Structure prediction request, 879 residues.
Amino acid sequence: MLKRLRHIFLAKSSDKLRRLQKFDPFFYSNYYDDLAILDSSEKLRKHYLKYGIKECRFSCAEEAIGFFESRFGQLPADFSAEGYWAVNRDLKQIFTHDWQFKQHYLQFGRAEKRRYVSKDRLHLYDTPNKFEYHYTYGLTKPDGVVPSRRLTNELDFALETPFAPSAAVYLSKKPIAVVVHCFYPEVLPLMLEKVANIPATTDLYLSTDSEQKKTEIEALCAAWQKGSVEIRVFPNRGRDVAPKFIGFRDIYAKYDLFVHLHTKKSPHGGSPLETWRDYLLENLLGSPEIVASILSLFDDPKLGIVFPQHLFELRGVLNWGYDYDLARRLLKRMGVALNKNLALEFPSGSMFWGRSQAILPLLEAGLDFDDFPQEGAQIDGTLAHAIERSLLFIAESQGFEWLKVSRRGLYPLASTVLPVETKADIAKHRLSVFRPCLTSADAGLRPTALGIVETRPILSYPSRNPKPRLNLLAPTVNPRQSFGGLASAQKLFADIAAALGEGCDRRIIVTDAAIEEEGYEAFADYACAPLTPTLDQDPWLLIDASEREHGRLDLREGDLFIATAWWTARFATDLDQDRKRYFGVDRPFVYLIQDDEPYFYGWGAKFSRAEETYHHADKTIAVINSEELFSTMGAKYNFLYSFCIPYRINDKISALLKPVPRQRQILVYGRPSVSRNAFELICDALFQWQQSDPVRASRWKIVFLGETFDESLLHPVENAVIDGKVSLEKYAEYLNSSSVGISLMVSPHPSYPPLEMAEAGIKTITNDYPGKKMQRRLPDIVALEHLEPAALANAIEQAVDEREAFIGRIIARRPVQSLPLEMGKALDVARLASILRGVPEVQNLGQPQGLAQTVGRQLRTLGASTNSLMQKQLARLVK
Prediction:
């Protein structure tokens, strides 16, 4: 059939010559698998002329798409292949060419109701500051070397020096320590020439390994007039590293900034490394303008280390070598956990500018020269090499960042050398140059995430914006996918944000489903940005994090998170760990708990991962939906704070409930995709009831609400219609007119639909559960203790029999009872906002700790911004 239609289409489209002019051999070869053996454009062209035209084969992508448009309708004006694969991950793994995505949408996607991102929103899926690494999960290479995670060459950026004069303003004039290891004194004159470019008092600290060399160095430094000179002799151990960090560790307390140099020669590297020393010196001290540019960077108090971009000839060997175990043991002494999966970056060549505070743990690590091996011309596998590779991990563990610099003419990848014309360029380029080492760089699927894809990690990037911000972690914002639980989450987010006031920004992070056009429209007040490091200035922001392999989420010191499902609670705790690494503070998060989620799954990994999220007692502010669930969760888990959202009918639904004559209509909340709604059990019971009471059942209509599904799932139930997810107005119409309702929830949560049905006057059938007795809400509710089809069928028959007498009559609305709560446990948004601001509450929080432990725990969660006077007052209370 399709072949005949193609023949008709192609016969009408154009003559043979014009079709040949459009012929695209690349398309022709890729579209038709059987032509893969034709290995040249000429052979493909000959095949098309001899066979392809007669066989009604397409000559180009335009012709193929034109045919499918004639068959299935035009592509939408705002359609693009990029926008289609951006939100259809399964297709991205199959197709590579634009025409494949277009054809799929025409032939299948439109009928499958697949979504796409419009052309004007494609920029939200571009990640200009993306992270892409060379990496292997292999443990060691054949020679025993531990491989490293390294940025690809094209994404490894550096700031171009010198900066434009307006950007190279150095404000501090404090003395600077120049720490030089002089194993080769003959190189020192060149270094002193470069050091003279420093525009401040410059004190020289020089080390060597013999008294004879010390005498030479004294003579070479005799004319130094920019500061003091001190020369020390140390054992020939630890190359330049031990003298600088161990031999001179007593001098750093006197200086804010230092520069590390050494009279480097690299005889092991041959001609490729002959220029290495001069390359490093030129990038660090090459001119007064270069030095002023680098020093101006240190006006940023967060900057700890500046070092040159790597010599290009070295890029292929920038790995852990034989140093990983040494570095791991060293960092463990400083409280830093190393993992080979983290990105490796370091000042190759061991020359760099630094801030003394950034290396403090190394200075205080208790190392001595005896910890370093005797000099034996080692090129790897020593403590000195391990320290070199550990420096940035140490600096980051102290809350400092680092940057790389390069002179444009000295590095061959010019596109990675970023010019600095203004101070604003430094802030912008930081996003590309600084790539944290100490936080996770692996966005790939971890073993657990292979089977639990929603747990794919969200990686972060430290933001410099000091404003507090409330964040909602939500699986989706698309209206068609948003049910009652997500509506509750969005309301809680809006209420807390309003209570926090204008001084607190807002952000919604979508973790699972790509945002569709309707989702963007629902949050039109929010700016949209790609998942990539930014200057982070938008006060209200919507982020699509569903595709996150190469992206990073801006993370502020003052970010506050609301988790809405168990895996988003994991994101909240992971991001809090990142925040502690970046800023040295951690904060509690709000966990909106709307069911006992581990029991959505069988016992296993998913159950365990979900259940573990309830055990962060010192970090979790639990907001639990419904009194029944609050009681159940409170009996099982301890939280820092816990609040209950008592059930109350939605205000809009309440306003729409009207006195309307009742019809022979059964309203069913039926969602096949949600197992706890027991869809199959409901259908089985309806079938049994209809078969046992066919005459009466033939007069009753059954309406399924909740989600759209294939009607074959209802077979052999009769008189049933599927209305799916409806508006609140339409839902209220059903509540007003229906006589019997069925809504099951196999969990401690009462579920809103059965309570709404009962309040609207519908004879409602639902179920009890341990900790949940539905007749406490309304005695008239039919609540089954044991769910099985025959019992449910019998309840349906009795409900229908009872309500036959009321058909055509009005049934009054009946209030559903609230359940008692302990004082102070009903959600008070203003109080919750105060807790998030860091205002402590001195009270017993229902935990098995005394006052001192409670106050101490609160103090730990307040963060650096808390008023010190308040902390002193709390400390007095403990006393």
Observations:
- The longest strand covers residues 202-208.
